[in-house]
Specification:
Amidase signature (AS) enzymes, 11-stranded mixed β-sheet, about 10% strand, disordered N terminus, 3 domains, about 500 residues, binds glutamine, alpha/beta
Length: about 500
């Protein structure tokens, strides 16, 4: 029995939910098993900024009481879930992995997390990430390094690296992440889990600390595609607190998982292969595409000619929005403030702003604030920001054009597998280039998913990216699920 219990943490969300339903286990058993796992592996991995054990045990007991009273709220009632430290959680510290929010305890809850608690989920803790979600390795966190569970000398990817590592190391059943240019998909690929970036506007951004508001998306990071579908059912939907959410009914995404993909047209955009790709990663993704072919899909080569400008477009629009969004951290309203220091009180308002921001923001945030203000400044606005918006439209049209010919696109997620700490952090440009395959999706606003596809000869995970047209999540999840089944590697776990 003890042995059985000690493995509860390995369950998928779906399996755990079934065992809760049948009465085989309680949410308290499951939550305790997860915390035992955390005690053993978290010292090695470092996935969390804050653990909420007391709250979790309380929520688990409440879930068990509901179940006894036959008042269970949903399929995820009693399921332990981790949340990226970018989602505001009422009365639970929320840092965005930045010192400027070191002592920030929100007085409100994000819509996405509120939906989880309304469905009965249990909060395990807040996961580490790149500072304000800026990065691809979780190295820009002001708090700690998160290690890749597959090789502790390597990064877990980013910016949702803590969430990916926590799911991969079985420290939660599932996690929430955010994706502005790849932050759900790239760490999912590097840690061998499933990461779904939904259509822009499908999931509310209310209460999630903003990075670049026209690109930010919220999504699930899970052990399986089915688990991602279950969570999307809960997260999706219009929200009056986020005017960009789409007023479109939410289907049952779980029901879309069993479709046949025979005859489906899968496009391979030639611009995503070739230069800069690690040959092993390239091979694994191409083998993945052959597997889709074996399932009866028609593989068609397509071209997205303007996609080569997408990274440049992103690195103009994103910093412009970052500069505006981060203006609110001024040392007055909340977060780190020089005014709070008795000894070194600022002598003027300007000094208060400058010193609070200088002390509170890390280098990457400062770099992007400066870039953003530069591209928005008069004299440069037309040359950079306006031009980037125009090219963004072309990128979007390229995707629309491709989706007139094919149902789904298949590409690599990242040009390489997980890299070593420090390998790219010295060169921002090299780090930015690692997002070349994930970034174009966000300006286009379409949904995309990373599904585990294989391992390199060093035993490092590699994911495959599938992309669908706007609101094409049902088709996307179906293809991803069929691929996951045929790839058959979901059960392979890192040794920790
Ligand atoms: N790595 C990309 C960046 O640094 C994307 C980050 C994200 O999606 N939040 O901007």
């Amino acid at each position: 029995m003890a042995d059985q219990n000690s493995k509860l943490y390995q369950l998928t969300l779906k399996k755990a939910s079934e065992k809760l339903k049948s009465g085989e286990i309680s949410s308290l058993d499951l939550t305790k098993a997860v915390f035992e796992r955390i005690e053993t592996v978290e010292p090695k991995v470092g996935a969390f900024i804050t653990l909420t054990k007391e709250l979790a045990l309380k929520q688990a007991k409440e879930s068990d009481k509901r179940r006894v009273a036959e008042k269970t709220l949903s399929e995820i009632d009693g399921i332990p879930i981790a949340v990226k430290d970018l989602f505001c959680t009422k009365d639970v510290r929320t840092t965005a992995a930045s010192k400027i929010l070191d002592d920030f305890i929100p007085t409100f809850e994000s819509t996405a997390t509120q939906k989880l608690w309304d469905a009965g989920a249990v909060l395990i803790g807040k996961t580490n990430c790149d500072q304000f979600a800026m990065g691809s390795s979780t190295e820009t966190s002001a708090y700690k390094e998160t290690k890749n569970p597959w090789d502790l000398k390597r990064v877990p990817g980013g910016s949702s690296g803590g969430s990916a590592a926590a799911v991969s190391a079985d420290m939660c059943m599932a996690a929430l992440g955010t994706d502005t240019g790849g932050s759900i998909r790239q760490p999912a690929s590097l840690c061998s889990i499933v990461g779904l970036k939904p259509t822009y506007g499908r999931v509310s951004r209310y209460g999630v600390i903003a990075m670049a508001s026209s690109l930010d998306c919220i999504g699930p990071m899970t052990k399986t595609v089915e688990d991602a579908a279950i969570l999307l059912n809960i997260l999706a939907g219009e929200d009056e607190s986020d005017g960009t959410t789409l007023p479109i009914a939410v289907p049952d995404y779980q029901k879309s998982l069993d479709g046949n993909i025979k005859g489906l047209k899968i496009g391979i955009p030639k611009e995503f292969f070739g230069e800069g790709m690690d040959p092993e990663v390239d091979k694994i993704v191409r083998e993945g595409i052959s597997k889709l072919k074996n399932l009866g899909a028609n593989i068609v080569e397509v071209s997205l000619p303007t996609v080569k400008y997408a990274l440049a477009v992103y690195y103009v629009i994103m910093p412009a929005e970052v500069a505006s969004n981060l203006a609110r951290y001024d040392g007055v309203r909340y977060g780190h403030s020089k005014a709070k220091s008795e000894k070194r009180k600022a002598k003027s308002l300007e000094e208060l702003y400058i010193d609070s921001r200088t002390e509170g923001f890390g280098d990457e945030a400062k770099r992007r604030i400066m870039l953003g203000n530069y591209v928005l400044s008069s004299g440069y606005y037309d040359a950079y920001y306006k031009k980037a918006q125009q090219v963004r439209t072309l990128v979007k049209r390229d995707f629309e054009e491709a989706f007139r010919k094919v149902d789904i696109l298949a590409t690599p997620v990242s040009p390489t597998a997980a890299f070593k700490f420090g390998e790219k952090s010295g060169s921002p440009l090299e780090m930015y280039l690692s997002d070349i395959h994930t970034v174009p999706i966000n300006p286009a606003g379409v949904p995309a998913i990373s599904v585990p596809a294989g391992f390199t000869s060093n035993n490092l995970p590699v994911g495959m990216q599938l992309i669908a047209p706007q609101m094409g999540e049902e088709k996307l999840l179906n293809v991803a699920n069929q691929f996951e089944k045929i790839a058959g590697i979901t059960n392979i776990k890192p040794e920790l």
